[in-house]
Amino acid sequence: MPAGKPQLDKMLRDARRILSIPTLRWMLPAAVLVSFAAGGYTSWIVDFTTRYKGLSKETAVPIYFAITVTGGGLGVVVAGWVADWLARHRIDGRALAMTFGFAAAVPFAALVILIDHGWQFFFFGWFLLFFLPWYNGPMAAIIDDVVDDADAGTAQASFVVGIHLIGTGPAGWVLGIVSSQLTLKHAFILPAAALAGAAFCSARGARYLRADMAAREARKAASSATLAPLSRMA
Length: 234
Hints:
Blueprint: H1 5-19, H2 22-52, H3 57-87, H4 93-114, H5 119-131, H6 136-146, H7 152-181, H8 184-187, H9 189-206, H10 209-233
Helix pairs in contact: 2-3, 2-7, 2-9, 3-4, 3-5, 4-5, 4-6, 4-9
């Protein structure tokens, strides 16, 4: 048996156990889809702007840098605050915050395609970048809420690998293929659709969150009950 096979088998068992949690079976595709959207925009937004919005690359790049830093950065912070505030009032609050962010990004993604000139384009682009990263903080917190402590690191790492391998990685390539067959405007429909799909998956995952959090607490209590007699014997 190859030396690394037992470790690989254990990793696969851990991944299957993590994905046996219903909440995460929906949250993973939500994260993949929003990462696909983000990867597509990152790869092609400058070309999209120079082709259709009447700007040079030298003008577009610093504008998008400013939008990303202000809109994206503020979106991450606001999303974390909203998610925690909702979680204090509802057990599925963090998932609802994510769902709202994904859904709110969709009309701005459509308007970015439709509006060709003027300040409105950058206004809508700023709000797209504001809502796009609303999953960053809430998603990590949701994973910790439903997986056992022993699996927390594996779960977080598996999600990071999954969303970049399946979502971010191929996004630019897929949009490039669609652009070559149709137009880049048509290709930009894909990230907008991905955001809508992410909202759907996140909303579905929210339905299981209460039960999965209760199951985690039950497993934790059962483990503590098992270890208690051993600690007294020691």
